[in-house]
Each structure stands twice: as structure tokens, then as C-alpha cells.
């Protein structure tokens, strides 16, 4: 491939550099997200007790109060665990992508495609659980959408790099 035909990522850098940059951003963002989810897990009992207090304030009957508290607690645990799962897997798969870029190994880039699809479904399920079990939340929508956009864009860049690596390996040229 001639220099004038060299593929670009993000309109300013090579696909290899762009993939590395996006994987690092995804890894760091996911580390922050995983930390946030762990903090939420540690504060969850306090959140549930606050919710029980709200139920007492509105004088809900015993069975109705217990059912509301259980639904709230199950929904919170589900949401937080799904977020933690997405962030943890993002860290792992971002590291695999970084390794694949570093070693110019297209097979290390393949798992990212599977993870992109799975994480997309998990984030949609997470948002639906949050919306229907608790209430609609703009911050949750922003978190879900931003995770999806970054994962899908990184998936497209990884796909391009993987294709370029396979072409380079078949012709025997080194990737830049």
C-alpha cells in the first residue's frame, strides 16, 4: 500500500496508532467505571435502607413495602453487577487488543468483535432494567450510549487493523 493510500483512524493517525489510542482510552475509562461500580456495591446496603425509609414515609402497607424494597434491591444489584461485568471485560479485551496491536497478531484482535456484540446487548438490558424497574435516568442513558459508541467505534477500527494485518501478513510486508 502506498503512503498516499495508507488508511487513517480518527482523520489524523494511522490505524495502528488509532487502535492503540482508542484501546488505551477504553481501558482507562473502564477502570474508572469499574471503580465506580465497586464503590456502588459497597454503598448498596445504605441505598436500600434509604429506600426503605422512603417507603415508610409514604406509609406503604407491609407486603407492598417489602415487595417494593425487594424489587429495588434486585434491580440495583442487577444494574451494578452488569456495569461491573462490562467494565471488567472491557479492561481485559482492551488489553488483548493492545497485545494484538503490539505483536501484529490478527487473531488477538478477533475477540473484540464478539465482545462488542455481547457488551452492546448487556448495556441495552442494563438500561431496560434500570428504566422499567426504577425509573428513566439521563445519566444512565449517557453512560450506556457512550460505552456503546466507544466499543462500536473501536470495533470498526480493530476490524480495519485486523484486515490490514492479514493483508500485510499475506504479502509479507511489515505494518507501520
Could you characterize the architecture of this molecule?
The chain is an all-alpha fold. It has four helices and two strands. The protein has helices at 15-57, 62-103, 110-134, 138-171; strands at 8-9, 13-14. The chain has a two-stranded antiparallel sheet with strand order 1-2. The termini are close together.
What's the end-to-end separation, in Å?
11 Å
Average pLDDT works out at 79
| Helical coverage, percent range | over 70%
User: Structural class per helix/strand content?
Assistant: mainly alpha
**How would you sum up the global shape?**
elongated
Query: Largest sheet at a glance?
Result: 2 strands, antiparallel
Q: Oligomeric form of this entry? A: single chain
pLDDT under 50 segments (min length 5)?
Answer: none
Individual helix count: 4
Give a count of the beta strands, DSSP E runs of length 2 or more. Answer: 2
Strand content: under 5%
Strand order of the largest sheet: 1-2
Amino acid at each position: 500500500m502506498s503512503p498516499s493510500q495508507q488508511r487513517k483512524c480518527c482523520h489524523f493517525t494511522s490505524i495502528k496508532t488509532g487502535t492503540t489510542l482508542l484501546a488505551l482510552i477504553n481501558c482507562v475509562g473502564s477502570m474508572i467505571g469499574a471503580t465506580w461500580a465497586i464503590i456502588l456495591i459497597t454503598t448498596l446496603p445504605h441505598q436500600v435502607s434509604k429506600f426503605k425509609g422512603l417507603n415508610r414515609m409514604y406509609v406503604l402497607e407491609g407486603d407492598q413495602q417489602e415487595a417494593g424494597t425487594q424489587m429495588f434491591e434486585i434491580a440495583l444489584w442487577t444494574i451494578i453487577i452488569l456495569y461491573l461485568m462490562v467494565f471488567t471485560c472491557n479492561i481485559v479485551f482492551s488489553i488483548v487488543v493492545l497485545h494484538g496491536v503490539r505483536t501484529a497478531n490478527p487473531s488477538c484482535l478477533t475477540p473484540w468483535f464478539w465482545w462488542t456484540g455481547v457488551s452492546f446487548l448487556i448495556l441495552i438490558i442494563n438500561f431496560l432494567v434500570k428504566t422499567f424497574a426504577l425509573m428513566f435516568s439521563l445519566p444512565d442513558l449517557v453512560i450506556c450510549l457512550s460505552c456503546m459508541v466507544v466499543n462500536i467505534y473501536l470495533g470498526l477500527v480493530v476490524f480495519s487493523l485486523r484486515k490490514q494485518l492479514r493483508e500485510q501478513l499475506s504479502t509479507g510486508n511489515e505494518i507501520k
